[in-house]
Automatic annotation (TrEMBL):
CDD domains: CY (cd00042). Pfam families: Cystatin (PF00031). The lineage of its organism: Eukaryota, Viridiplantae, Streptophyta, Embryophyta, Tracheophyta. This is Cystatin domain-containing protein. It comes from Pisum sativum. InterPro entries: Cystatin_dom, Cystatin_sf.
Length: 127
């Protein structure tokens, strides 16, 4: 790709992603390194992310004194760091409530850093 085309693609990406949260990232130009990208939810990805959502929801329940149960993942973005940051949007239910949408940020460390997931945040999605 020519330099002008690359600059144009970067500028367009910056403009389109300017007001998006980490949970709503868009696909970057194919030659762009770093940043946060959407994660396509395949069956394998769903199997890998479900325990992370459940871990985040367990932390939320403990801190808030609630009893939400994970239902399904809606979408996720990810970012390569010293491991991977996952910004997941999912639904959960409680015996006395309709389905509620949550957003969780979980860092899965590289094996050299312990390899364990760390819940950075979990909250009901703002409306």
């Amino acid at each position: 790709m020519e330099s002008n085309d690359e600059e144009k693609a970067y500028a367009e990406y910056r403009e389109r992603s300017r007001n998006l949260s980490r949970f709503d990232a868009i696909e970057p130009p194919p030659y762009m390194c770093g940043g946060i990208s959407p994660l396509h939810i395949t069956n394998e990805v769903r199997r890998n992310l479900t325990p992370l959502c459940e871990l985040a929801l367990d932390k939320y329940n403990t801190e808030q004194g609630t009893n939400f149960v994970f239902v399904d993942i809606l979408k996720s973005t990810h970012q390569g760091v010293a491991g991977t940051n996952y910004f997941m949007t999912f639904r959960a239910k409680s015996p006395n409530c309709p389905l509620v949408t949550f957003q969780a940020y979980v860092w899965v460390k590289l094996p050299c850093y312990g390899g364990q997931p760390v819940v950075q945040s979990c909250a009901i999605k703002p409306t």
